[in-house]
Fold:
Amino acid sequence: MNQSALEGFVKIVEMDSFSAAAEALYLSQSALSQQIRTLEGQLQFELFQHVPRRVILTPAGRDFYPKAKQLTALYQEAVRHARAVQQQENPPERHLVIAWSHEAMRMFGYDLFSLTNELCLQYTSIMMQCASRSEVWRSLKKGDADLSFQLESAEFYAQGFTFIPLLYVPELCIPIHPPADMPVGRLSLEQALQYRWLPVKEMYQTVYETSLLQEGLERGVNFTPVGGIRSASYGDPALKMVPAVYYRRPDLSFARVLDWGRGHRFGIVLGQKRGDPLVMAYVRALQQLLPSLSEKLFGLKLEPVEE
Structure:
C-alpha cells in the first residue's frame, strides 16, 4: 500500500477538499486524484462518492478513515524511531554547523529544523552563536562553521565568500502615526515616498536596501538614519523599514509589503567549506525544499531565486 496515497486520503478528509489537500501536500490535484484511484484499486473498494466539487465518503470510506489515520501516524512514528536508532548505532562523523549573530536568524534556523526533520537527522545540523557579523565571517573563513543564512550583502562578497540565493524576501513597512487613508497590504514606492523612512538597521548592510535607499534619496524621501531620533517627540507619519526575515509571519492588516523590485535575496553564505560534499548536499536539499516551506517560515508565499 502506498503511504503517500494513504496520507493523501487522510488529508482530503481532514480538509474536506481535494484542492486544499493537494496544495497542502504540494501536489497537483490530478496527481492526488490518481493516488486515490490507485489506493482504491489496492483496497478493492471506493473511498469517495463521485459527487462534483464535494467530498463525501462512502460507507466503506467512513469506516476506513479512522484506521487509516492511525496507520499513517504509526508509520511516521516507526520511521522516526528507526532513524533515531540508526543515529545511535551509526553516529555522524560531524555536525553541520550554521553560524548566526542575529536572533532572527537563530529563530529562522530552529523553525527550519522543525519543518525539515529528515534533513536534521541526516545532517545533524546545529546552530552556532557568534557575537557579531564579523565573528560569523571569521568562523566561515576558519572552517569553524559550515554556512550561514544571510540577506545578500556586498560585505561578504568583499570577504571572498560564496553566496547561494534561495528566496526573494520583501521589505516590510511598519507604519508609525499612519494617516487614515494609508493603503493596507502593499505600498508602491511612490506611496512609500510620502512618509519618513526609519530603517531598523543600517540600510547599507544589504544589496537591496542600498539600492532602495539610493532610489529614495534621489527622489527626495525624508530619511532618518538609525539613531537619528532618540527621545524627541515626532508626529509626522513614518515607516519603519525592515526586511521580512526580521519580522516573519507579519500581520498584514498592520504591516505593509513594499512593492519595489523583487526584494532582498535571502540565501546561504559559504566560506572554507564551500567545496565540502556534505555541505553542498545540504544546500542542494534546501534549494529543493525551501520554496514550498516559505509560507510556513515567513507567513508569505515567496518567489524562489532561479539561477
